[in-house]
Amino acid sequence: MTRRQLHLNAFLMNTGHHEASWRLPESDPYAHVDLAHYVRLARIAERGTFDSLFLADGPQLWSSAGQRPAGALEPITLLTALATATEHIGLIATASTSYNSPYNLARKFATLDHLSAGRAGWNIVTTAGAEAARNFGLDAEPAHAERYARAAEFLDVALKLWDSWEDDAIVADKAAGVWGDDAKIHPPRHRGRFFSVEGALNVPRTPQGYPLLVQAGSSEDGKRFAARYAEAVFTAQQTVEDARAFYADLKARAVAAGRDADHIKVLPGIVPVIGSTEAEARANERVLEDHIVHAHGVDRLERLLHLDPGTLDLDGPLPADLPPESAIEGAKSRYTLVVELARRERLTVRQLIGRLGGGRGHLTFAGTPDQVADTIGLWFESGAADGFNIMPAVLPSGLETFVDHVVPILRTRGLLRTEYGDHHRTLRERYGLPRPANQHVIAPALV
Amino acid sequence: MTRRQLHLNAFLMNTGHHEASWRLPESDPYAHVDLAHYVRLARIAERGTFDSLFLADGPQLWSSAGQRPAGALEPITLLTALATATEHIGLIATASTSYNSPYNLARKFATLDHLSAGRAGWNIVTTAGAEAARNFGLDAEPAHAERYARAAEFLDVALKLWDSWEDDAIVADKAAGVWGDDAKIHPPRHRGRFFSVEGALNVPRTPQGYPLLVQAGSSEDGKRFAARYAEAVFTAQQTVEDARAFYADLKARAVAAGRDADHIKVLPGIVPVIGSTEAEARANERVLEDHIVHAHGVDRLERLLHLDPGTLDLDGPLPADLPPESAIEGAKSRYTLVVELARRERLTVRQLIGRLGGGRGHLTFAGTPDQVADTIGLWFESGAADGFNIMPAVLPSGLETFVDHVVPILRTRGLLRTEYGDHHRTLRERYGLPRPANQHVIAPALV
C-alpha cells in the first residue's frame, strides 16, 4: 500500500511574505515585475518536487505604494510564462468571480491547461473591498452573500463551458473533410440570475477536463462553497487544534454534499523562518521585525478592523468593543482570526503587527529544519492537514532554504515524493484527484 | 540616410489561412491547441526578422466545427507562452472592447509588455456578431456605431490606466523604508457613459508605456477610430489602386487628427502561394481549391450577405439586389469587399468561394519568390503599404517557404532588415514609433 504523502504548494509573493522583506540587502525591489525572479522561484519549487505554485491576486492597487512593493503582474498571464519554464509543477492562479465574465475566464484557464499540458489551477475568490468594486463600475462592494451567490452561478456556468466539448468531439477526418462532430459540442444556453451565456466555449476540452478548483475563504459562506466545489483549500490556522477542527468540519461538509472526503485537500499556510539553530532562526525573524515600519501596520490594521484612523494605540491592546464577524462585509474569516489571535495571546498592537507582518494571520514558525519538519509532520499525521501552503518570509532565499534543508528531511521520513514520476502528469493527478467526467457523457456502466 | 524598410507581420492561424489547409497530409488537425506548433511558427518568423506576429480572435465558437478546425487558444495567454520562446519578435493579440472590462484588459497587456520586455501589441476589435454578444449576457450585438463609441471610451480609460504610474514612481529606498511615491501614481477617477474606473492600475508603467495599438476595421467608423488611435493598421485590399487610395486616406485622416503620418503604419494582407515556377505555384493553389467543401462556403457566404439559406446558386452570380453596406450591422467593410470582388471579376459563387477560401478577402497571390517580392516591392514603393500582413495559406510550410525564399530577395533589395540589431528593442521601436510620453508628465521643454 502506498503511504499517504504531503501535498506542498509554494505561495509566491514578490520578495516574500514578510512585509519588510523587500528592505533586506538580498531583495530586488523590482522583483514583482521581473519574469526572471519568478522563473527562479518556480524552478526552486520544482527542484523540491512541490505539487504546485500559487499567486494571490486582487484587481486593485492596495492603499499605498509607499509601504512595500505594490501592484502585481496578472497571475494567469504570469503563470503561462512559467509553464514554459517548468515541466511538472502545477500553476494555480487567483481570479475573481465578481469582476470577470465566465466566458472569458473559463477560456483563459482552458488555454493555460492546454499550454501547460494539464497543470492549471484556479484559486476562486469573490474579492472583498470597495477599491476593487470601484474599478469595475460599482460604487461599493456587493454584500458578502451576494458575492458568493454570484460565485456559485459563475462556477456552474464555467463547468458547463469546460464540458461543452466532449473529449472526442474532434473527428479530424481529412478524407471526408469533416473536422469536428457538432453533436458532441454542447452550448450551455445558460440563463441565470447573474449570467446569460449561450454558446459553447471556443476551446476544446482540456487535459484535466478543467483546472484544479481551489478555494481559500474560511467564512461560513466560504466553507459552504468549498464543500461543494473546491478540490484544494488554502487556510490560515494558528494552532493544530483549530486546524484539526477546520479539517474535520470541511471534510464532513464535503461528504454531506455527496463528495469523497479524499477529493478535497486541506492545506494550511505556514511561514517558516529557518535557521541552523533555534537561536539563528529567532535572529532571522528579529531582523525582519526590525525592518517593519509600524505606522503602516497601524494603518492597515485600522482598515481591517473598520476603525477610524488614529484609534489604535501601538503599545495598548485592541479595543474591547469590536463588532462581531457578522457585521463585517469584507474579509470575514481574516477579521475573526486576527481579533482572536490578539486576544488569545494578549498581544499589544505592536506585537500583533509583528505577527501579522510575517504571515498576515498564517502560522509563523521560527526553528531549525528538523523542527519545521516536525511541525509539518505533526499536523499532517494528526488530521489537521493534507499538506501545506509554504509561504516563505523572504524570496527566493526562504524557499531555497526550505527546499535544501526541510524537503530532504520530509523525503527521508517518507512524507514527500522524491521525484515527480511519470504516472502523475497533471496537477489534479498529483493531488490524488480523478479527472472529472464530462457532464454530457453518460458513464459507460450506466448506458 | 537610412532607407525606408518594410514592416512584416506574420498572421498566424491554425494550419493556415486557406480553409482547406487542415486537410493536407502535412497538417496536424490538433495544431490549434498545440503550443509546439505555435513555437515553431514564431521561431520561423523570427528567423525571417519579421517585426511581429499576430493572432485574430473572437469570443465565440463559429457556426460549425464540421467544416474546419474550430476554437482557438486565448491570444494574450498564448502569446505570453511565445514570449518566452522568442527574443525579438513583437506579439500582437486581438482583444475585444465590447466584451472586456478596461481594468482587466489593460492589466493583461501591461503584464505581457513587462514579461516580453516591450514586445506587446493590441489589435483592437469591437467584435461583430450576435454569437459573441449572447456569450456575454446580451441578446443581440450592439449597433456598429455604439460599439465604436464604447471602443473610444475604452481606449481613453486604458490609456489613463497605463499612464497611472509615472515611470519613476518606484523609489525603492530601502534605508528609509519607502518603496513607492504615491504622488506619482494617478488614479483615473473615470466616470463615463460606458465605464466607471476609479483606481490606478496595479502594474507599474511598462517598457513601451503601453502596447502597440493596432486596428483592422476599414468601415467609416473603423477608419475614424484608426486615425485617432492606431499605430499600425491591418487591411484587406484587392488591388494596388484601392490600397493606394486607402493608404492616402488614412494618413490624411491621421494628420487631420494632429498626428504624424509616419506614426500610423499601413499593412495590407497578402496570401502568398509560392512555387519555384509559376506553374508550380498555380498547382499548389489548385491542390488547396480541390480540398474545399463548397457546401460550407455557400453556407458562410449566405450568412455574410444576410441571405436566407438556399438562396445562392453555386454556378450563378451573386443576386443583383443585395442591400447597401449602410444596412449591415456586422462586418461592414468585409461585406463590401466581397460584393465588389464578385462583381468586378464577374465571379460565380463557386469561384468566389475559391477566392475567399484562400484569404477571406485579402489579396491572394500565386507566383514565384521573385514575383511575390516584386508585388510586395511595387505596393511598398508606390504608396500603397508600409509593410505587409503575411497570411500563409498553409502553416508552417507556407511561412517557411516565404522566409527561406522571399525574405532573402527582400533583403538583397534592401527592403528588409538582415538582423534585429540592438538599437531597436521594443515592438514600437521596430515599427519606427516613439515611446509615448506619460499624460501626467509635462514635457521638460514645456516646464
UniProtKB/TrEMBL annotation, chains A, B:
Alphabetized UniProt keyword annotations: Flavoprotein, FMN, Monooxygenase, Oxidoreductase
Highest taxon, organism lineage: Bacteria
Molecular function terms from GO: monooxygenase activity; oxidoreductase activity, acting on paired donors, with incorporation or reduction of molecular oxygen
Stored Gene3D superfamilies: Luciferase-like domain
UniProt: FMN binding residues: D57, T94, H144, Y148, S218, S219
Ranges where the Luciferase-like domain occurs: 29-384
Keyword Oxidoreductase attributed: yes
Keyword Flavoprotein: yes
Recorded family membership: Belongs to the NtaA/SnaA/DszA monooxygenase family.
Name of the protein described by the UniProt record: Monooxygenase
Species of origin: Streptomyces variegatus
Upper lineage: Bacteria, Bacillati, Actinomycetota, Actinomycetes, Kitasatosporales
